[in-house]
Amino acid sequence: MSAGQRGGMVIRKFESQDLDKILALVRKMWPEAHYTSMEREYGVIGGRSWREWVAKDVGDFVAAHPENVFVTELDDQFAGFCSYLLDRGKMTGEIAYNAVEPGFQGRGVGARQMERIMSAFKEANMLYAKVPTGLNDAHAPARGMYEKLGFKKMAEFVIYGMKL
Ligand SMILES: CC(C)(COP(=O)(O)OP(=O)(O)OC[C@H]1O[C@@H](n2cnc3c(N)ncnc32)[C@H](O)[C@@H]1OP(=O)(O)O)[C@@H](O)C(=O)NCCC(=O)NCCS
């Protein structure tokens, strides 16, 4: 069994044919955030729904950092993806976009994805890790996952918006 494989679960580097599945997952179930609040307050912004903006942002991230994206397969099916950034100056790795297919949630996939990223941080000689996430109910599973991993809350944050 390879380092990325455990119990029918394989975590491997992103390949270009994974993009459609990643974006379909994002469109299906990305948690509500400030994008959603802006749309609720002001209507559709820039001709795309907030979900389409998130899909575009994720697509742009993957195009810019394909080497920083992992895909998880469980029993040969796409189960989720995760991504990260490295700040070598601050020796800090940042967990970026990550999600698990609804049908595979609650089975340890999210936690295993985070373990894989933590290994990537250590391989890159990072000394610290951080992750931004939401404080709303939709992000409760993500907060639970990060806290279980050992992350401590460093700051709370607000995004203000207005129409010009
Ligand atoms: C967050 C997410 C990736 C977790 O994936 P998952 O595969 O279901 O998570 P796991 O089964 O590995 O669970 C790991 C830990 O996360 C926490 N967790 C998972 N689901 C949870 C829930 N519904 N409520 C609270 N905590 C939860 C628990 O601490 C869990 O450990 P435990 O099972 O020992 O209690 C998944 O819910 C998801 O895709 N959410 C939408 C996308 C998202 O929010 N991404 C992060 C953006 S910052």
Oligomer: single chain
Question: How far apart, in Å, are the first and last alpha carbons?
Answer: 57 Å
Q: Helix fraction?
A: 25-40%
Report the average pLDDT across residues: 95
Rounded Rg: 16 Å
- Low-confidence runs of at least 5 consecutive residues: none
Q: How many separate domains make up the residues?
A: 1
Explained architecture:
This protein has 164 residues and is an alpha+beta fold. The protein has one domain (5-149): Aminopeptidase, CATH 3.40.630. 37% of the residues lie in helices and 22% in strands. The chain contains 5 helices and 6 strands; from the N terminus they run E-E-H-H-H-E-E-E-H-E-H. It has a 6-stranded mixed beta sheet with strand order 1-2-3-4-5-6, with helices on both faces. Strand 4 (77-87) and strand 5 form a beta hairpin. It starts with a strand and ends in a 15-residue tail after the last helix. The mean pLDDT is 95. Bound molecules: coenzyme A. Coenzyme A is lined by residues 31, 98-100, 105-111, 133, 139-142, 144-145, 148. Coenzyme A binds at residues 31, 98-100, 105-111, 133, 139-142, 144-145, 148.
List descriptors.
164 residues, alpha+beta, Aminopeptidase, 37% helix, globular, binds coenzyme A
Summarize the structure.
This protein is of the alpha+beta class and 164 residues long.
What is the topology?
Layout: E1 5-6, E2 9-13, H1 19-29, H2 34-42, H3 50-64, E3 69-74, E4 77-87, E5 92-100, H4 109-123, E6 128-130, H5 140-149
Parallel strand pairs: 5-6
Antiparallel strand pairs: 1-2, 2-3, 3-4, 4-5
Helix pairs in contact: 1-3, 2-3
The chain binds coenzyme A.
The site of coenzyme A has 19 residues, from β5, α4 and α5.
